[in-house]
Amino acid sequence: MRFVKMHGTGNDYVYVDAFQEAVSNPVELAQKVSHRHFGVGGDGLILIKPREGFDGEMDMYNADGSSSEMCGNGIRCVAKYVHDTYARGRDELRLMTGAGERVAHICSRDAAGNATAVQIDMGAPIFEGLKIPTTIDAPTVLRQTLQAGDRSFEFSSVSMGNPHCVIYVDDVANFPVHHYGPLIEHHPLFPRRVNVEFVQVISPDEAIQRTWERGSGETWACGTGASAVAAVGRTLGITGDRLTIHLTGGDLLLEYDGTGSVKMTGNAVEVFRGEIAA
Fold first, then answer.
1. Quick count: other Cβ atoms within 10 Å of Cβ 228?
2. Which residues, at least 6 apart from 174, have a Cβ–Cβ distance to it below 8 Å?
3. Kind of pairing, strands 269-275 and 2-8?
């Protein structure tokens, strides 16, 4: 089975072109290829599939084999692959995900005409508690409190196609993400588990983020998480309409004016291609 290793802002996945390759057990394959010692290594597996009426479809699996509705960094790489392979020169692509349609705009290309940066319309944030989903039946889940181990945290929750929990901290670089991340991921407030963003605000237009992703652990970047941070920050008046977020793997630009969709712009990079025994 042929594959492509790509990353968006350091959030790396193994991609399989399901236009050409057949995958019978994606859960097992995701666990196999994601292992960083016994496999290819990555935060998960993404199948790039044909879908009638669209330029392609993203089918995403975390490193533990669990499925996820949406991945912001992943969908940029899907857009790059579809553009470079099947839609060269097109400026806009329509892609289907588990969270619905997403529109990708190719922002830049290299000398060979391959896409290097992509903007994704991430859709409108969902703030309603039961739709995120959380167990809180309220129009919004903002500035709520949860207990995780020995600490109480103020958090805000939102869905960007998948559930997120945003927590502001003073020193994110030294925050024990690996201790509190899994406790919050599996907290009973979140019936489908949750991605947890630990965020340090530098200014209204700049923040630093670390993410504990459900099913994958800490990742170097999370596009839906960055979108969640932009949506929550703008809604609470903490950050503005344009927010540069520094992640371990690089920067993302988020745009959200409090209405409509969140727009996310970042790189999409092919690392290498290979072939594995399926």
1. 33
2. none
3. antiparallel
Q: Which residues are catalytically annotated?
A: 71, 222
Instruction: Check residue 126 and report its DSSP letter.
Output: B
Q: What sign has the CA pseudo-torsion 12, 179, 126, 216?
A: positive
R_g of the chain computed on alpha carbons: 18
Give residue-wise pLDDT tens across range 59-110: 999 999 999 999 999 999 999 999 999 999 999 999 999 999 999 999 999 9
Q: How many CB atoms within 10 Å of residue 186?
A: 12
Which DSSP symbol is given to 220?
S
Q: Rounded to whole angstroms, how far apart are CA atoms 273 and 144?
A: 45
- Residue 277: band (very low, low, confident or very high) from pLDDT cuts 50, 70, 90: confident
Neighbouring residues of 197: CB distance < 8 A, sequence distance ≥ 6: 164, 165, 166, 167, 209, 210, 211, 222, 225, 226, 228, 229
Q: Give every CB contact of residue 226 below 8 A, 6+ residues apart in sequence.
A: 72, 197, 209, 245, 247, 252, 254, 264
What is the pTM for the complete model shown?
0.94
Which residue, 160, 169, 151, is CA-closest to 195?
Answer: 160
Cα distance between residue 210 and residue 197, in whole Å = 6
- Look up residue 9 and give its DSSP letter: T
Q: What is the distance of C-alpha 18 from the center of its chain?
A: 21
Q: Which domains does the chain have, with CATH numbers?
A: 2-122+266-275 (3.10.310.10), 129-260 (3.10.310.10)
The length of the chain is 278
Q: What φ, ψ does residue 253 adopt, rounded to 5°?
A: -105, 125
